[in-house]
Design goal:
This protein has 255 residues and is an alpha/beta fold. 16% of the residues lie in helices and 32% in strands. α2 packs antiparallel against α3. The protein is elongated.
Length: 255
Amino acid sequence: MTIHKTAIIEGDVNIGENVTIGPYAFISGKINIGANSMIGPYVQIEGSINIGEGNQIFHSAYIGAPPQDEGYEGTETYVEIGKNNIIREFVQIHRGTKEGSVTRLGSDCFLMGGVHIAHNVKIGNSVIMANYTALAGYVEIDDYSFVSGLSGFHQFTRIGKYAMIGGCSRISKDCPPFMIVEGNPARIAGINVVGLRRRNFSSERRRAIKEAYRILFRSGKNMTQALNDLKSDEGNEDINELIRFIESSTRGVTR
């Protein structure tokens, strides 16, 4: 363990093995920092925070800030961070609003500089978010998604697995799995073929997703009719994922 002499650590802080804490870091509260993590200079971590093993948190990131929510009453809320994430400079991760609630980041994610994670956001595993992306409260981003820079997300929107969000997009409705969504207003621009190939989707799986895309968004059918057509292939795991996502949407789905 290496802790710089200028770092300030106070409260109930548990630091794992081989953790490095840089100059002028400020760590205060009920905090666990997993083994083999790096806390860079001027990082601030406060509140009730659980940080898993192998995380790299760079210069001036702020983990556990009170939520920017007028409904927050100062009660104990949380941030949970999984393993092996890269959290770059000036990233902000705010804790939950309602008592006992959580803002959660999974494992193996890469948050580039200036990313803002608001209260009660849920981010899955292996998610990449480029510079200055801003997530409002209660946004959910599922596993293996890629979010390009300068994109903004309305409260309660959801991003499905393996989706890609284009740069400078304004997201106000749910974005289905496997799709590319971009623009202001946002629209579905096609299938995230490159992302699916990188994740070793076979040509058969990609063809099935392409056909589902055609039925859902290019056939001229309304969503109920299109979903009924897709349900004839419910044995397909990827098609089931699309159906589940769309049917559980409360904000509506990007078209």
